[in-house]
Amino acid sequence: MRNRTKSTRIVEPRRRLRDLGFGIGRYKPGRYNAITDVKGVKVGHVTLHRGEGRLVTGRGPVRTGVTAILPNENPFYDRLVGGAYVLNGAGEVAGVTQLTEWGLLETPIMLTHSLAVGRVADACARWMIDHYPGIGDYEDVVLPVVGECDDSFLNDAAGVHVSAADVHQAIETAQSGPVAEGAVGAGTGMITCDFKSGIGTSSRRIPTDGATYTIGALVCSNWGRMADLRVDGVPVGALVEPEYAQMVKRQRNAGSIIVVIATDAPLWPTQIARICKRASLGIGRAGSSAAHASGEIVVGFSTANRVPRKTKRMTHRMNALLDERITPLYEATVEVTEEAIINSLCMAVPMRGVNDHFVPALPLDRTSALLRKYRPPMEYLLQPSLTRLPRSIGPK
User: Fold this and answer.
1) Contact assessment for residue 50 and residue 195, using Cβ atoms and an 8 Å cutoff
2) In the predicted model, what is the mean pLDDT of the chain?
3) Looking at residues 257-285, what average pLDDT do you find?
4) Region 50-77 average pLDDT
5) Domain for residue 392, yes or no?
6) d(Cα 348, Cα 10) in Å, to the nearest integer?
7) Helix boundaries (H) for the chain
8) pLDDT attached to residue 377
9) Which domain holds residue 167?
10) Rounded CA gap, 292 and 307, in Å?
11) CATH number at residue 274
12) Active site residues
């Protein structure tokens, strides 16, 4: 559904961070380096991109969309253990109150723009009712989990162009495998550190004594000023700012970021909340200070334990990782969050939106040159002596 116009002309080929020859952290990514490396997780996007020129509320230009993250095939009856963490609350995730109270996720996780939260929640609830007709009758009602970021610099936000059909399409077309990144879905109109961004994702595989766990992040990234941006510790934003400062027209750009964490490690709700808290370190490493008007909210879930809605039993058993074994997951969470943010920048194209507002793309050739100059090569970082795991969690 993405229209290619002169405002989305690709200046240079877009490539993910690892395709540029760089990676963040020491754990290896999964097959797709995406949240969908966690078995059962699917992602779907609907992208709305139409119109040019002056803003006419209700008509456009439109630069927005919706993203769906499905935690499993049947979240209503096979509920997953979940949790959340709010670093700064100048944003919203509808449904997060019940999620943190019960420690259970029972709907898809939806992402969109700020003024569309109600419409997306309503449409997601309707989709759930259509697929589970007992909802609101002999079954409980549902409160869909819907996160938002503000895309009004590029999008006719007040026009609320996301429709129920768009929400249903995002859910129904969600799939495993590679995930589209950059200016797609909920990320269509998003901006990070004055560069075009949007959706980004990354994953890691964590070897332990008895198993290898996978953890993945998907972000809708929309925060910060150019000087804030850091890529694996290199102040890329400050170094390129002299070349791009004249393009920065935004005066109000605190923005927000929503992070979704998925893992197949067996965890309790409190442990998932602690995992979500560590995602904020990844946000900080990318350069965010969680500004006053910015919302940094993290939602997470584990696919390892499913809590049935219907059972004749009085109890339900779940496995959980011992707290003493959880530190590698913390480290991997920081890695995937930071790399997902950088991927959202690397994959986004330049965009012109409402009132001819223009946002450039992160210059990849310049970024690559700076990383080569200021950071050790990946081969050095991956030397065994620097990546040896504690004995209790190391690979056999």
Assistant:
1) no
2) 92
3) 98
4) 98
5) no
6) 9
7) 96-102, 117-131, 164-172, 236-244, 269-285, 327-347, 364-374, 378-381, 384-387
8) 62
9) 6-310+318-374
10) 37
11) 3.60.70.12
12) 256, 294, 296
